[in-house]
C-alpha cells in the first residue's frame, strides 16, 4: 500500500472500524490468533495516528487566496511587524509576516514589485 495514496488514512481507519465492529467473528486464517490480531490493530492505530499528524503538519491553509503551509505560520506566529511595529492579529498579516517578515501594509509599501531588494535584506529603517 503506497503512503502517497490519498485514501490511505481512510482505508486504515475503515479497517480499524471494521475490525472493532467484527470482534466476535473468527478470522478464517489458520495462523491467526488473538495476540496477533491485537498487535495488528495496534499497528493500524499507530499508522493511522502517524498519518493524521503528518497530514495536519503539512496542511496548507488558504489566506487571501494564497496557499501557505500551516507549519510556517505556527512556527513564526509573530504578531508585531518588525518594520512598522504594529501588532496584527489578521490571518492575512500572518501570511505576509511568515513569508516576508512584515505585515500586509508594509508588503504593499515596500516589498511588492521590489521583492529582490527586500530579499537581499533591505529594510526601510531610516525612512518615514
Ligand atoms: Zn508593517
Account of the protein in words:
The chain is mainly alpha-helical. Helices cover about 50% and strands about 5% of the residues. A two-stranded antiparallel ribbon has the order 1-2. Strand 1 and strand 2 form a beta hairpin. The longest helix has 24 residues. The N and C termini lie far apart (about 60 Å). About 5% of the residues have low confidence. The structure holds zinc ion. Zinc ion binds next to helix 5.
What is the gist of this entry?
With 128 residues, the protein is mostly helical. It is built from 6 helices and 2 strands, in the order ααββαααα.
Ions and ligands: zinc ion
Helical percentage: 40-55%
Largest sheet: 2 strands, antiparallel
Strand order of the largest sheet: 1-2
- How large is the radius of gyration? 24 Å
Oligomer: single chain
Question: Which descriptor suits the 3D outline?
Answer: rod-shaped
Secondary structure: number of strands: 2
Mean pLDDT: 74
Give the end-to-end Cα distance, rounded to a whole number of Å: 59 Å
Helix/strand order = HHEEHHHH
Q: Helix tally?
A: 6
Extract low-pLDDT stretches. Answer: 22-27
Instruction: Classify the secondary structure makeup into a structural class.
Output: mainly alpha
Strand content: 5-15%
